[in-house]
Amino acid sequence: MDPRSAVLTTVALWEGGDAVRLVDVPLPAPGPGEVLVRVLLATVCGSDRHTVSGRRTSPSPSVLGHEAVGEVVEVGPGGAVGDDGGALAPGDRVVWGVTVACGACDRCRDGRTTKCRSVRKVGHEPFDSAWPLSGTYARHLLLPAGATVARVPATVPDALAAPAGCATATVMATVEAAGTLAGRRVLVSGAGMLGVAAVVAAVDAGAAAVVVTDPDPGRRALAARFGATETVGTQDALDATDVAIELSGASAAVSRCLDALDVGGRLVLAGSVAPAPAVPLDPERVVRGWLTVTGVHNYEPRHLRAALGLLERTRGAVPWGDLVTAPAALADVRALLTGPAGTAPRAAVVP
């Protein structure tokens, strides 16, 4: 018997619907270029809750979870490098990109690796596939060769680092798509985890004003604590804005953002990741107003490094830790995925 097969790790296996159970499985030896990581802390992204509730399609059984920070346990033959070009080694504290691309197809060559024609995603792969340990609701995760892996600065705590691999990095891609924000009026639609991070990123980029719109007064108050210069409800009038960043995915919110754009304005859509009613678009207004509408889904490797940079620069200026709950155990994952949303935008799990 292979002595390695006697070494086990534990995963929270999602089997469809609200069925989640803890399973012990053999701990694999990493292959060439692969990195075995021990999960230090994972956070629960809303998309996983949508998967379990049926709003979002994902293969089952599988190990869900994609936002986490971990420690390198072992690197496969030939080694592996981080996004900074340095060799990864056991003991490195790291975060990783959600997508793993081939690097060779036309989309990868064009710089859109997140839309690779053979893309694989952390926390989205079938358990019976060649990559069973793909999710972060587990004690260990195996990162394939070619995955984006970034070392975490010592000054960034686990609770801040974990969401960097999804929420914060996606925000950095969204802000990049918005263009120069210095001196501009920015509207952020939706004050969840992404919206609050977008407020911090816009302020960090030198925006003249950052207005947040959300129907929930508690979320609006949270956005104000993170630097929003003004918060408004969804029934309140919006002033003209130079840049609108829409993160809620609600069709009515998309329409409000379009209507608020001033001449030369730009709307970046990042929250519309599920089917929703179509939004009318007046092409004459777009033409006469020199308006731009663009979309962002996931992010490129550079945005993960940018997310860590934002966290490091702003960790003392805003209460990032308030966005994440006190950590629960791996056995509590089912309750976190199926129960009521918590008081903070992110629930934490320490496997």
TrEMBL record:
It holds the Pfam family ADH_zinc_N. Its EC number is 1.1.1.1. The keyword Zinc applies. Gene3D superfamilies: Medium-chain alcohol dehydrogenases, catalytic domain, NAD(P)-binding Rossmann-like Domain. Residues 31-153 form the Alcohol dehydrogenase-like N-terminal domain. Keywords: Metal-binding, NAD, Oxidoreductase, Zinc. Belongs to the zinc-containing alcohol dehydrogenase family. This is alcohol dehydrogenase.
